[in-house]
Amino acid sequence: MTTTDLRIDIDRLLHRLHALGEVGALPGGGVCRLALGDEDRRGRDLVRGWMDELGLRVSIDPIGNVVGVWPGAEDGPPVLTGSHIDTVRTGGLYDGNLGVLAGLEVIETLQEAGVALRRPLAVAFFTNEEGARFAPDMMGSLVFVGALSVEEARATVGIEGATVGGELDRIGYAGTAPPMPVHAYVELHVEQGPVLEREGVQIGVVQGVQGISWTEFTVHGVSNHAGTTPLALRHDAGLVAGSMVAFVRRLAREIGGDQIATVGRLRLHPDLVNVIPNRATFTVDLRNTDEAALQQAEARVHAEVEALARAEGCTVEHRPLARFEPVAFDRGVVDRVEAAARELGLSTRRMPSGAGHDAQMLARICPAAMIFVPSVGGISHNVKEHTEPADLEAGANVLLRVLSDLAS
Amino acid sequence: MTTTDLRIDIDRLLHRLHALGEVGALPGGGVCRLALGDEDRRGRDLVRGWMDELGLRVSIDPIGNVVGVWPGAEDGPPVLTGSHIDTVRTGGLYDGNLGVLAGLEVIETLQEAGVALRRPLAVAFFTNEEGARFAPDMMGSLVFVGALSVEEARATVGIEGATVGGELDRIGYAGTAPPMPVHAYVELHVEQGPVLEREGVQIGVVQGVQGISWTEFTVHGVSNHAGTTPLALRHDAGLVAGSMVAFVRRLAREIGGDQIATVGRLRLHPDLVNVIPNRATFTVDLRNTDEAALQQAEARVHAEVEALARAEGCTVEHRPLARFEPVAFDRGVVDRVEAAARELGLSTRRMPSGAGHDAQMLARICPAAMIFVPSVGGISHNVKEHTEPADLEAGANVLLRVLSDLAS
Predict the structure, then answer these.
(1) Per-residue pLDDT at B1 exceeds 70
(2) N or C terminus of chain B with fewer C-beta within 10 Å?
(3) Does the beta-carbon distance from A268 to B268 stay under 8 Å?
(4) What residues in A contact B194, CB-CB < 8 Å?
């Protein structure tokens, strides 16, 4: 039997997804396993137990990243797959978990078929990908690739005051494994967006991750009585903010391509029906796969808010909240993903990832790419997150094929 | 000495304004005397004491309106002046208080000069004009003119659970005076807006009160990931709300005249930087002295929000918060105010009131008008509220002259 005829066992994969989903399960469905909390520890223990059952060599590094390695015929850096098992407060069963458990399923499928690969094949789950309890997100993979020091990561204080280091020690996941070279990295993930479902496409061939620019703007005006202050004498901070909400949508349409723009947060002060707002705070989230276009969008947002504020006699200040350049995945690995899907008779679509993933960190140290499967309704970070079993199966089979190729 | 040569004593008026301002004084300046609270009782007792000292016949009606009548040579309905002495939580020394204490000052000036008027002259302070603790505002004058029943007013529950009736009984201001016919009503008030100061005008001749239309709109969209949801697939409730903020300003400019429009309150849900808002709630405050124009503005706001929601695949619902038709003051009394100011050598400007005042309720039962004096910086409902003594004096002298005319 050649590896091209192999298929993963969807029932076994679903069984593991549901078993892990019971750890930290929420009453109405969904799951809450915030990074390094007690539920995360129980989830880690469960997945580690499965790694042991598959005979993987499990190592834990100082930030709590867990890697299970299945040795190959030759030594050398492993072909790595994986993702994360921490969740947001109202998370689903698939975000992150799918990539980790599909990795185990691929190894079990290969082991059952008696396949021996040339290179080691490994499955990782990275610490605190979500950033829901400790900032920044993708912390484990950032440390894994050497972009964030263990000391700095351990010192991070979470939303309720505990530190990453303290929690790692408490749950027993502060390991000692040294940095690990990686031959290539492929991550299977749910799309978390509506594109694949909307277009009826089975596999998203992820070419890269959009660059992200988050800025918080605060406009300062003057509060006055909404009934006694003529229009010409107003300094309405809310008007500047509201106009910017409309502007960023126009801007994104105008720039076109992958450009998207969102005002997700907006607050007025004093927020009273008959008082002209003296302060408006809002965020602008800009994303593009092209760094030059992203910079152009940023410049136009700043120019527009300054012009609007000036016209209204307001002042404006801004605070950068996050900035990541776009990441382009390795063309060779991306092509392999596309080829594997097509060989399996699956429809494909090249696309960027709009969300951040551990794969973008791994791309700094090795050829990397991602495989997306459809999210029903595009819903994620929500207890209603769902992906159909047939799509989970298709994605895992693509992963099986790509990992087998890379490790042969 | 004829009454036209009389002038009020600004020092005596200032003394009373400051004495009343010490009741419920805030540490950093300003005052808090919420309607029917302990500070309001102490303020009422103080002003009532002054009425007693001037020999006025004091009556208290069932909603706690207090009227001090100085008898005239003939019986019959009094010429009434007044305002309110309750304040907002961070109120100033002049809003309301000026109209009441200037009324007392006018009577004391006339008494000292030995003037005997034909008609009774009376000063009132009306209960709960501000509405800061109990809704609606202008409650006392609403009951005074028979537009709200005592029973309904007493049953009103305030922001911390107490009722108007319970508080009236507790502070001893539930009186028994029967409804009082009024010959004419004139109210002196600070402008609470920037127009007089900006134009260097001393006296605002108030022709009426703007009609007010307050509506709360709630737009329902769909929350989705700001990074993974293409523009074309969004149902962004925040975009509709933001676009409306910009629209109402354009609309007010386009309608012109007295039309003003404000979005003072706006909230997004879930209000997160990287989540498309699935709900946006905002208020629209429209004001115009012309009822037809106000209705046109309302219709255009509704049409625009419906169109914007439809274009974004959102739905919208609305809830009326308040609606008052414009009030036109009595031409005869308005003309007298203007003439009196000019005879005193004061500059005048005819203008509408953008805020609500007890005078608009009194206008339902008698000829009524108002006199405005400048507010420094247009600031009101704020501890920084200020009017220059020279302007207080000018306003009170106009009041003296108009009341003397009306009562002769």
Answers:
(1) no
(2) N
(3) no
(4) 224, 228-230, 233
Check: CB of residue A349 under 8 Å from CB of residue A195: yes
Residues A57-72: tens digit of each pLDDT? 999 999 999 999 999 9
Mean pLDDT over each residue of chain B, to the nearest integer = 96
List chain B residues with CB under 8 Å of A253.
Answer: 231
Do B163 and B19 have their domain in common? Answer: yes
CB pairs under 8 A, 24+ apart, for A387-392? A387/A94, A387/A98, A387/A190, A389/A10, A389/A14, A391/A202, A392/A10, A392/A13, A392/A14, A392/A17, A392/A94, A392/A98, A392/A102
CA-based nearest residue to A106, from A54, A153, A44: A54
What pLDDT is attached to residue B4?
Answer: 84
Q: Which residues of A touch B321 (CB under 8 A)?
A: 273
In a shared domain, residues B255 and B309: yes
* B384-393 pLDDT, tens digit each: 999 999 999 9
Name the pTM for this structure.
0.83
Task: Tell whether the torsion through CA atoms of A338, A343, A344 and A348 is positive or negative.
Answer: positive
Contact A81, A187 (CB under 8 A): yes
Q: What is the CATH number of the domain that holds B174?
A: 3.40.630.10
pLDDT tens, residue by residue, B364-390: 999 999 999 999 999 888 899 999 999
Whether residues B163 and B16 fall in one domain: yes
B359 shares a domain with B307 = no
pLDDT at B287: 95
Q: Residue A276: which of B262, B321, B382 has the nearest Cβ?
A: B262
> Which residue among A296, A324, A352 closes a domain?
A324
pLDDT at B159: 84
Q: What is the complex's ipTM, to 2 decimals?
A: 0.83
Are B242 and A242 in contact (CB < 8 Å)? yes
Interchain CB distance below 8 Å, B239 and A231: no
Look at chain B and report how many structural domains it folds into.
Answer: 2
Instruction: Tell if the CB–CB gap between B264 and A230 is shorter than 8 Å.
Output: no
A218 lies in the same domain as A366: no
Mean pLDDT of chain A: 96
CB contact under 8 A, A225 and B381: yes
- pLDDT score recorded for residue A264: 96
Distance of CA B219 to the CA centre of its chain: 31
Q: Mind telling me how many Å the CA of B349 is from chain A's nearest CA?
A: 15
CA-nearest residue to A312 within chain B is: B249
Mean pLDDT, residues B224-245: 95
Nearest CA distance, B254 vs chain A (angstrom):
12
| pLDDT tens-place string over residues B246-267 | 999 999 999 999 899 999 999 9
Residue type (1 letter), B264: G
Q: Is the domain of A101 the same as that of A39? A: yes
- Helix, strand, coil share of chain A (percent; to 5): 40, 25, 40
pLDDT band, residue A382 (cuts 50/70/90): confident
What is the amino acid identity at position B270?
P
Q: What is the CATH number of the domain that holds B220?
A: 3.30.70.360
- The distance of Cα A152 from the centroid of its chain, to the nearest Å, equals 21
